[in-house]
Amino acid sequence: MKPCEKPTYGGYYTQAQVHEIVAYATERGVNIVPEIEMRAHVESAIAAYPNLSCIQKPQSVLPGGIYPVDYQTSYCAGNEDVFRFLEEVLTETMSLFPSKYIHIGGDELDKRFWEKCPKCQKRMKDEGLKDVDELQSYFIKRMEKFVVSKGRKLLAGMKYWKAGWLPKLP
Ligand SMILES: [Zn+2]
After folding, report:
1. Most C-beta atoms within 10 A of its C-beta, which of 45, 80, 99, 106?
2. In angstroms, how far is CA 169 from the centroid of its own chain?
3. How far is the CA of 56 from the centre of ligand 1 (A)?
4. Domains of the chain
């Protein structure tokens, strides 16, 4: 998508369509691994539920991959609503996809917001986490525990942006 290009809205599969796709794949010996992005690349979820971000302010999905400096692309790791939301999404996902593996993305976390967020800082203090790197491990491990408790296995990438690569938050 080019900068300033108009975003498109909509586009989803119904549960009936997912059942059809999974059956079609299964008949041909293909396993579909669903991916639910987290902690980052969640602009669309935050556009719909601004309370799930650290900054708690409405923001739209921006086309073109060019974001304002204070645009958050990740969930708040200190907010229990985030984990409740993700557990509900994963539960529905696992009910639709029989795959043994569930992918949760996990790449390109912008940690600047976690460093400034009181809820994320409180989480670090309560859990004895020494920095935001340990906070991101906490996030992934917590989701892994949930996925494993449902008899599935977690797949995740762990890349995140290097400190200093992104501009400082205002
Ligand atoms: Zn936060």
Report:
1. 106
2. 21
3. 9
4. 31-155 (3.20.20.80)
